[in-house]
Amino acid sequence: MTQIRDSIELDFCDVLFQPKRTTLNSRQEANVIREYKFKYYPHKIVSCGIMAANMATTGTFEINDVLQKHQAITCLHKHYDFGNKENFDYISQNFNKEESCHNSYTFITTGLRDDKEKLFSLLSNENFKIDKLCIDIANGYIPKLADFVKNVREKFPNLLIMVGNVVTGDMTQDLILSGADIVKVGIGPGSVCTTRKLTGVGRPQLSAILECADAAHGLSGLVCADGGCTCAGDVAKAFGAGADFVMIGGMFAGTDEAAGELIEKTIQTCNLEEVSGEMRLLNKIEKYKQFYGMSSQLAQEKHFGGMACYRASEGKVVEVAYRGSIENVIQEILGGIRSTMSYIGARKLKDIPKCTTFYRVNRQLNEVFGKS
Ligand code: 5GP
User: Fold this and answer.
1) Domain edges within the chain
2) Separation of alpha carbons 70 and 105, rounded Å
3) Is 192 in the pocket of ligand 1 (CB under 6 A)?
4) I want to staple 78 with a disulfide (CB 3.0 to 4.6 A). Which of 109, 214, 262, 290 is the partner?
């Protein structure tokens, strides 16, 4: 018989943090940098836990250049060909300093349909300075994924492996036991994702994080909350629910460093001249950047030469407001998290869940008078 789980399932917009008595006098006392230890990867990393999504638009070298200065991570998209000397050299030049690649903030990405031999030979190449791999497929429940993770872990015991995506504790644990250090959580919350519409499958992201983080932490694994963050407060809530890392696409997509066409639109506005009292038409230029889902028809055409006939598009194309340098966005996010921490009394990033009590609410924002 069909079963219904009628426990309450929550999204970021369904909760707000309860402020608490705190020992912090200022947000400057909040430390957003955390040391991470892993189940399999033998090195520690020190990071703010924010990751740029491995999408063609946000998993770029340009985003990596800026984010690494903030100890934030970039998951490069899988369409970079490292057989190409320029791409290969970027990686060697970026990390071939005194520090080793363990300190780098960069992952490469693979799917299950990609060339396994090519991937393994790249990861075995001593001159290739990345030891972090994101294995990303839309449906993390297929058995081939866990088998692949086992295979990669066996071949590369010292690789940092992140795998996804899932939304339940059982599969999070399966992937960790198969060899994943980090499990990526999120089916359907992404800003350009249409999976929920097309398939009816998904889970509200906050509840998914709560369950998967609990399941992962019991096995010394970690989770990355992937998708659905629309503002700094959502990123803080993801950490509050227990995420160790938070992956962001849309919030980074309107920046200079993101790939994607810059679109300029001339908008006519009506203005009242103060002196003459006449109405005048003014031209205003609004800037946008194109952002597309990795399963959208556009992505399939751009990167795979068309959509296979057995697939349907599970992503869309949108125009996001242009936001200047990604520097502004990452500063805003880190500033927001510091402020959350000072409200709830968390001195360290890792303490956020311990200090979190959420109110369940039916309205998160109070934007009543027009848009800003
Ligand atoms: P955002 O931060 O934009 O809300 O979410 C980014 C995440 O959306 C990505 O990391 C990825 O997991 C997911 N995503 C990206 N493209 C697509 C797509 O075309 N379809 C689906 N279902 N998810 C996507």
Assistant:
1) 12-257+324-360
2) 10
3) yes
4) 109
